[in-house]
Amino acid sequence: MKTLQISSFGSPADVVELAEIERGDPGPGQLAVAIEAAPINPSDLTLIKGVYGARPELPAALGAEGVGRVIAVGDAVDAARVGERVLVVPTLEQATWRQQTVLDERNAVPVDADGDPLQLAMLGINPLTAYCLLHGYVKLAPAAWVAQTGASSATAGYVVALAKLAGLRTLNVVRRADAVKPLLDAGADVVLVDGADLAEQAAGAIGDAPLELIIDAVAGETATKLAPLLKAGGPIVSYTARNRQPLSIPVVDLIFRGLSVHGYWLNRWLDSTPQETIVRTYRDLATLVGNGTLAAPVEATYALADYREAIGHAAQNDRHGKVLFTFQ
């Protein structure tokens, strides 16, 4: 069976290798799943570089999320699950950049057998992250303003869709002018290009209403510019460390206005959340994927054998969609 793995940490272009391994049989409480599709995420690339929040033992199999069909079950697992399509929950306990994977039953959430496998494959990380960012830190009433930096990302697109569904308003900050129209077309209320006058533009866009939540994907000066517009006691939540920049918030805002700063990591949420909540949240989000409320653009799909081209494509900063591996 073909799988992608690393034997050392480093540049993905240099250290990822295609290997042949034995197919594993499911043990007690486990399933074997034939993978249909698996995305290449920025977190996968940082893990390969050795700078992610988790550092697996080497050699390490790759791929955190995906979707596939159950092909075998172990003892104590209902045999009726064979043939079921499941989401692979991205706990990093099993790999998805491979033809088949074996996982514990708790990490396999049933999803629509007839849904789009590409969209379902992307359900594990970004949509759940967007949901937790919007609803995990402050209770937002309809029409509340939510700001997000790095708003051209896939996660940010899910934030826009979920905010619109909840009746919230979004102020989105991007770095390129060509990212403005796609976000507005997707339902964003305001899209601004980052610059020296960002604070003034944002203040003019929201008027007298404060920001009630800032979702941060870039850190650095962008979040600093928005912080004065956040309501007293409001949270700033950072969820990606790709740029490795510090998050700088004026100390007077922390002391006198009681702003709070949080870091969100999906794996920590998965570790600390009851299993029934995890399953219910994924099933609710899968329903939204099924009816088209949640979707991310796909720029390209690749066979596993074309992994060098696929990983290089996924690493490009000027992409306009996700890159996935697909399997027959």
Can you offer a commentary on this structure?
The protein has 328 residues and is of the alpha/beta class. Helix content is 30%, strand content 24%. It contains 12 helices and 16 strands. The longest helix has 16 residues, at 275-290. The two termini are 13 Å apart. The mean pLDDT is 95.
- Class by SSE composition: alpha/beta
Largest sheet: 7 strands, mixed
Strand composition percent: 15-25%
Query: How many strands appear in the DSSP assignment?
Result: 16
Keywords:
328 residues, alpha/beta, 7-stranded mixed sheet, 6-stranded parallel sheet
Describe this structure in a few short sentences.
The chain is an alpha/beta fold and 328 residues long. 30% of the residues lie in helices and 24% in strands.
In terms of topology, how is this protein built?
Elements: E1 2-6, H1 12-15, E2 16-20, E3 30-39, H2 42-49, E4 60-61, E5 66-73, E6 85-88, E7 100-104, E8 108-110, H3 117-121, H4 126-135, E9 145-148, H5 154-165, E10 169-174, H6 180-185, E11 190-193, H7 198-206, E12 211-216, H8 220-226, E13 235-238, H9 251-256, E14 260-263, H10 266-272, H11 275-290, E15 298-302, H12 307-314, E16 322-326
Helix pairs in contact: 4-5
